[in-house]
Design goal:
Blueprint: E1 3-12, E2 17-25, E3 28-33, E4 45-48, E5 53-56, E6 58-63, E7 68-69, E8 72-73, H1 78-87, E9 90-98, H2 105-116, E10 123-129, H3 135-146, E11 151-155, H4 166-179, E12 182-186, H5 190-202, H6 209-214, H7 217-234, E13 238-240, H8 246-257, E14 262-266, H9 268-272, H10 275-278, H11 299-309, E15 314-315, H12 348-357, H13 363-377, E16 395-405, E17 424-434, E18 437-441, E19 444-445
Parallel strand pairs: 1-4, 1-5, 6-9, 9-10, 10-11, 11-12, 12-13, 13-14, 14-15
Antiparallel strand pairs: 1-2, 2-3, 5-16, 7-8, 16-17, 17-18, 18-19
Helix pairs in contact: 3-4, 4-7, 7-8
C-alpha cells in the first residue's frame, strides 16, 4: 500500500471550503481531516499545498478524440488528448462513440474502445452517438445501459450524416425513459440551416463568418424548444449540449421553471469568444468554426447568468480540434467545408478559475460546474467529482496565483493554434493525481498511456 498525504491546502468542493489535509491510500481518498488531527501521520509521499487549493480532478463530459468529420479526423488522439487534459487538471473525460450509419451501436462502441484502450493518460467513459435510430438500435440501448453506457446523443443537425428526424428522436426519448438512458441533443434545425448555407454560397458569401450567420440563434432556439417538447411527450429527461444562444437558454429556463428535467451545458468558447472571432480576416476566422457557432458578445452575459442560476448545469469543452494548416483549410472558399470544432480540454479548468477571479461565479460553483455536476449528471459521483473518503484519488493541487499566457507554443493539445492565443489568465494546476498517481507535477509530466481506465457509469443521478 502506498500512502500520499496532501498537507496545508484549502480543500474546495462543490459544497465546502475547508483547511484540511487529504490522505490517499493506493487509488482512493481515505481521510479529509483537520491538520491538527494528521500531525503525526506519515506517508510515502507528502505534498505541501500551502497557499494552494486542493480540488477534485475535472470531469469533462463532452470530448471528441479522433472523431471523423468533414473528410478528416480530429487531431487529438486518445493519448495526446488525455495527456493534455491531465496538464489542465482534468482527470476524467466522457467521449462519444459513434454508431456507423447502417451499422449497430455495438459496432461503434467496439471501435471506440479499440481507439481508447491502452492509450489514455486519464480515466475515460463513453456516450453513444445514435446516427441511425432503428428497432434494433433501440433494443441495443437497453444492453448498453447495463454496460455503463448510460447516455445517448442525437443530432437535429447535419442532414445526410448524423441527423435524426423528430420521429426517430421521439422513439429514442421513449426508450431513454424506459431504460434510464439520458438523451443528449445537438439542437440546431439542420434542414433550415442547409437552405441558408446554399443561399449564402449562391450569393458568394463563402468566408468563415457566414458559418455563424447561417446557423442562426433562432434555429438553435427552435430546435431546443422542439427537443424539450418531444422529451415531455416521451416523459423523458433531456440534456442539451453546447448551448450558445440567449434564445435557446430561454427555452431551457422556461422548462426548468415549469419543473421539467431539462438540462444544458455550455462551453468556454461561448463564454470567452464571439462572432467577432469568426469574422477575423485572411481566413483566420476558420480557427473559430464550431457548431453551435460563436455568438455576438452580448450573449455571454446571459450564459454567465445561466450558470449562476443553474439553468446551465455544466461547462464541458466539446473538444474537437482540427489543425488550421491542412484541416481548417479544407474550407478555403467554402465555409461549409471547414471542419467544425475547437480545442479546449486543457484550458477549461483555468478559464473557469479566471471566471471566479472576474466575479462571474464563486469558487464552489467553479467546482460544481466543472467536476461535481458532470459526475452526477453522467453517473460517476462520488467516485469522481469530489474530495471525500471513498472517492477515487483524482486530486489537483491548484495554484490560484500562478500567471500564464495561453498559447499554441505552450499547450499540450495536438493542434497548431490556440483560440485563446495571447490571453493572460491567473491560476494553474500544479500537481495532478489520477487515482493516487502523480501524473503532472510542477511543470513535468509523469503520466503514461494506458494508466487511464474505462469507467462504467450509472444512470443520471439527478433523476433518482
Amino acid at each position: 500500500m502506498t500512502r500520499t498525504l496532501i498537507r496545508n491546502g484549502l480543500v474546495v468542493t462543490a459544497s465546502d471550503e475547508l483547511s484540511a489535509d487529504v490522505l490517499i491510500e493506493d487509488e482512493k481518498i481515505v481521510a479529509v481531516v483537520d491538520p491538527a488531527v494528521s500531525q503525526g501521520w506519515t506517508a510515502d509521499t507528502v505534498i505541501d499545498a500551502t497557499d494552494r487549493y486542493v480540488i477534485p480532478g475535472g470531469v469533462d463530459a463532452h470530448t471528441h478524440m479522433e472523431m471523423p468529420f468533414g473528410g478528416t479526423v480530429a487531431s487529438d488522439t486518445f493519448e495526446t488528448g488525455t495527456r493534455a487534459a491531465a496538464w489542465g487538471g482534468t482527470t476524467t473525460i466522457v467521449d462519444f462513440a459513434i454508431q456507423p450509419r447502417g451499422g449497430s451501436l455495438r459496432e461503434g462502441l467496439d471501435a471506440w474502445h479499440a481507439k481508447a484502450e491502452g492509450n489514455c493518460a486519464v480515466d475515460y467513459a463513453f456516450h453513444m452517438i445514435m446516427s441511425d435510430v432503428t428497432d434494433s438500435s433501440l433494443k441495443e440501448m437497453e444492453a448498453l445501459v447495463g454496460e455503463g453506457i448510460t447516455s445517448f446523443k442525437l443530432f437535429m443537425a447535419y442532414p445526410g450524416n448524423l441527423y435524426s428526424d423528430d420521429g426517430r428522436i421521439l422513439r429514442a426519448l421513449q426508450k431513454g425513459a424506459e431504460t434510464g438512458g439520458l438523451v443528449m441533443m445537438h439542437a440546431e434545425n439542420g434542414i433550415a440551416i442547409d437552405v441558408l448555407v446554399e443561399q449564402a454560397l449562391a450569393r458568394g458569401q463563402s468566408d468563415p463568418r457566414y458559418h455563424g450567420v447561417v446557423r442562426h440563434a433562432l434555429l438553435e432556439a427552435e430546435a431546443t424548444h422542439r427537443a424539450i417538447k418531444l422529451a415531455q411527450v416521451a416523459g423523458a429527461p433531456i440534456y442539451i449540449v453546447h448551448l450558445s444562444a440567449i434564445e435557446a437558454l430561454a427555452e431551457i429556463t422556461r422548462a426548468r421553471d415549469e419543473g421539467y428535467n431539462a438540462f444544458a451545458e455550455t462551453c468556454p468558447q461561448y463564454l470567452y469568444l464571439s462572432s467577432a472571432d469568426l469574422a477575423r480576416p485572411d481566413f483566420e476566422g476558420a480557427k473559430y468554426v464550431c457548431s453551435t457557432p460563436l455568438r455576438p458578445v452580448d450573449h455571454q452575459a446571459a450564459l454567465w447568468r445561466g450558470l449562476r442560476t443553474d439553468d446551465l448545469s455544466v461547462v464541458s469543452t466539446d473538444h474537437c480540434p482540427f489543425c488550421f494548416k491542412d484541416q481548417k483549410e479544407l474550407g478555403l472558399g467554402d465555409f461549409s467545408k471547414i471542419p467544425n470544432g475547437l480545442p479546449g480540454v486543457e484550458t477549461r479548468m483555468d478559464l473557469l478559475h479566471q471566471a471566479v477571479l472576474d466575479g462571474h461565479i464563486g469558487r464552489r460553483r467553479w467546482i460544481e460546474i466543472a467536476c461535481a455536476t458532470p459526475a452526477r449528471m453522467f453517473g460517476l459521483y462520488p467516485r469522481k467529482g469530489t474530495i471525500a473518503p471513498g472517492a477515487d484519488a483524482d486530486v489537483v493541487v491548484y495554484d490560484p496565483a500562478a500567471q500564464q499566457v495561453l498559447s499554441a507554443q505552450t499547450h499540450h493539445m495536438n493542434v497548431d493554434y490556440s483560440p485563446y492565443e495571447g490571453r493572460a489568465i491567473t491560476g494553474r494546476a500544479e500537481t495532478v493525481l489520477s487515482r493516487g498517481k502523480v501524473i503532472v507535477e510542477k511543470g513535468e509530466y509523469h503520466g503514461s498511456a494506458g494508466h487511464g481506465r474505462f469507467q462504467q457509469r450509472s444512470t443520471c443521478q439527478y433523476l433518482k
